[in-house]
Structure formats: C-alpha cells, structure tokens
Amino acid sequence: MTAPAPRPRDLSPAETGFVRQKPVPWLNPGLLAGTAVRVLLAYLFGGYLDKRELQAALPDRAFDHSAADELWFDYTADVGDGFDATYSVASLLARPELMLDDGRLLPRGSLLVLGGDQVYPTASSPAYENRWKGPYRAALPDLAVDTPSLYALPGNHDWYDGLTAFLRLFAQGDTIGGWRTRQARSYFALELPHRWWLLAVDIQLSTYIDEPQLDYFRRVAERLTPEDRIILVPAQPSWVKTHERPDAYDSLDYFIRTVIEPTGARIPLLLAGDMHHYARYTGPGPDGRGRQLVTCGGGGAYLVGTDHLPEQVAVPPEETIARRRSTPQRYELAAAYPSQPASRRLGWQVFARLPRRNPGFVGLLALMQTLLMLAFVTSHDRWVTPATVTGVAAVLAGTAVFTLVLGVRTRKHMMAAAAHAVPHVALAAGGAAVWSALPLSELPNPWATLLAFAVYGPVIGLLDTWVVCGYLLIARYADVNVNELYAGLGIEDHKSFLRFHIGRDGSLTVYPVAVERVAHRWRADPGGAPGSPWIVPEDPLRATLAEPPVLVDRPRRAAG
Description:
alpha/beta; Purple Acid Phosphatase, chain A, domain 2; 2 domains; 9-stranded mixed β-sheet; 22 strands; globular; disordered N terminus
C-alpha cells in the first residue's frame, strides 16, 4: 500500500519576507476612524507636505524604451489589498507567456506601469512590504536576464503619508524580485517605439500640478512633434467624476492645453485606475480622430461595479467654471467589466457579505441601536428628552459622515444623509416598543440593561446592518455611496489589467485581461526553476478578455 502524497507546505513569512494579508475590512469602525483621520490630515496638510516641490532636485530624464521594433507592456492599478486577489493578478503578470481562454498567447510585458494605490488602507513601509512588494517579489523572483522595468504613479492612498514610503520604494532604482524600478520622481515619461510616449502625471490628491512637474514635462514636450502619439496616465479617471465635481478635470485639461497641444502631438488614449473595474469610453477627440478614455483599477482591491457609470460623458464638462478650457467632446460608454447588469446583481449580495466581512460595523450599529432604544424606554412615553435628542442627533451625525465621507456635499448627498437617518430612528423606536413588551425589561437594573446589550444588541445590530444594506442598494441609483456599497461587499473576484502591444507597424492594441475568479488555495514551490514563482495556485488561474482587443491607433501610414 503506497503512502499518501505529502501535503504541500506553505512558505513561512521568514522564507517569503512578508506576511500574507486578508482583504481590508473597509467598514469596520476602527479602520474607518483611523483612515478618516489620515485622510483628513492629508487634505489639511497635504500642501505643506507636498514632496513634489522637493523632487526638482532629483534626476529629470525621460526613460527610453524605443529601440525595439515592437513592444509589449502592462498596466495595472489599485493592487495592494488582500493576498489572494493581489497575488492572482501578480502571478498572471509575471508569467513569461499568458494563455487566454480563447487560445491567444500574450508575451510578458517588458514594462509594468502601476497606475496608483499600490497599498491599502494607508501608506507605510510595512504595508507596502506585506500587501504589494512581498507578493510581487514572490510572483517573479530575481531574473538573471530580461528584467522588466517597473514604474509607479502614486494614488490617493500612496499620498496619505506625504509620499514618504512611496519614494523610498519606487524611486531608489532597486529591484523588486524580477522587476527593476527606474524612476526618480513620482511622475515620469516613457519614450516607446514608433514615436509613442507614455506620460504619467502626479496630480496630488486631485488638486493641482506643481511647477517643477510642469517644467519636467515641458522639457519632454520639446521633443514632441505632430508625428508623436501619447498615452496620458493620471491617477484618477476625472472624466467620469465631473458629474459631481465639474472641476475634477481642470488640472488635466490645463496640462493637455498648455503642455501637449502646442507640440501638435496627439493623445489617442487617456488611462487611469482608482475606480476598481474596467471601463472604456470612446469619442472623436479634439482633433476629430478617435480618443479612448480607459479606466482599469482591477489589480487587487475590492470590486466596484459599473452600474453607476453614465452612458455618456462630456470632457471637459460644460459646467466647469474654469476661465479657459478645451472644447467639450462627448464620449460614449463602449465597454464595462463587469457589465452593468452583472454589477446590479452583485449588489444584492450585500445583505450576506457586509455583516460577514465587517463584524465590527455590526457591533457599532448594535451599540448605537441599544443605547437609543434604552433612551426611548427610559423616556417614559415622552419622545423629547435630553437622552432621545442626543441619540437622534448622534444618528444624524453618523449618517451624515457616512454619506459625505468623500467630501461631496451636493444637495443630493445632504438629502440622502437625512433620509438615511429616518429608518435607523424608526427601528430604534420600534425596538423600544418591542423590548418594553418583553418581561426582560421588567428586571431590576443593572440586569435589564445588561440583558439589553446581550440579547437585544446582536439582533438589532444585524437588523440595522440590513437597513444600511437596503439604503446602499437604493442610494446607488442616485450615484450616492456607491463606493461604500462595494466596499461593504468586498468582492475579490472580477479583476482586470491591461496588456499593450505596439506592433512593428506602429499600431497600438490593448488587451483588457479579465480574471473572473481569483485563487484562494495556494501551495509553495520553493524548488522551481530560477525566476519561477515561489507560490502557485492549487487550481489553475484562468484569464480571459473583458472585451475584444481594442485597436487604439492604427499604423502611422494608414492614419495619415
């Protein structure tokens, strides 16, 4: 009788150099409070801690990758969350060849561009190590030859420590496994074959572009001619955020008008992450030739569905009050992954997923509801007492913070915050009536109060969590708290990244790679060939296309 095969062992943190992380539970109270404080500090003092001004003393060269007749390169964003999703994408990016479900074989990119938010929830050296650097090093260990270059653009989460950890990691010219970092600043310009360029612009926390950065790109622009074509990469897809903030696109529009347009160079593609899905808008562009607006933030963070995306956007928006702007152009939504109907169906999972993934949030609501119920019970049929007024005010404050957490203060959001408070107060009043009718409420204190927290609290906490879930499902149709809905869902599947190909004829094709299901079971493979991953999935990872390959720009001969 043969002995059973030994069970595959895990690599320990001492062997891998990092600790595997679970997905961030975004709605847990401690994380919410801590992140809110860091975000507030970043927005209050970000201008004083802006390291972009200091970067003027660092090397300012563009990076030349134009020698080859053709080039494959990759783009991903929003990567540093839980291990399973982050490593699933990293392992696909690292493969020497990526086999798609339709039989296509795509070579590994010679460049990897990270589009922002390389770590969650806030930037620090340990967070980068455990949530991004460690998994990517394990996916592609050291290579003796053909080391791909890596460039990273900071997103808002990278900025929450003033960019300190980001610059230490990405701007020192180090190797991270088989990838080598080359940039010296938080922004960069890449010269690609056939007069293609990739310009990555750091618009710190959606504010403005600093003068040293503008000077850097102006020097790059001196090399541009009407024959050049540009992939412009900001950290956020401001073209879909202008319906709430008409000024969201102003900085990018200023950059295009003052730096790029005077050269005559074209911008066939604007590309950003930040929103955790894949979406593509297409339109004529200001020169009458096609321009694509692509969002691809599916590198590892929780999925944000596409059901709230407008079918059409005007870029720049007609509502902006900027004194100077480009002529608005209309772009149509051409593709979305996951699809809008699929996203709506996923939203209904919130009733099961939010309580399970965010137990601290359930506990917070249980505490709030129990205290408010006790305030109503002890008011002795008088609805207006100091205790009830304080409790209702606390509920209003909580729903206001929850609705306005991103700083949007339109009338629509104010009304949503007020409407959200109503069912919470009504639930507390109803709970008080039910609790008063039970014999437990007749026990002497402190037993009645203790039993309220022990018996009533867990039940009402779950019911109130479902009230929040119902609010989120309704609010998304008004484009309110959409991010909170999907943060509560915490869906790790439906990841995406882009593989680009600049052909020998100068054409640019985008392959939007989709990963329907990330891997959750892994085994160590420490004895693999040099450059092979340290950790591999027990079940094969499957990759497909979110839509057919997109020809961004035709060969230069045909375009002329």
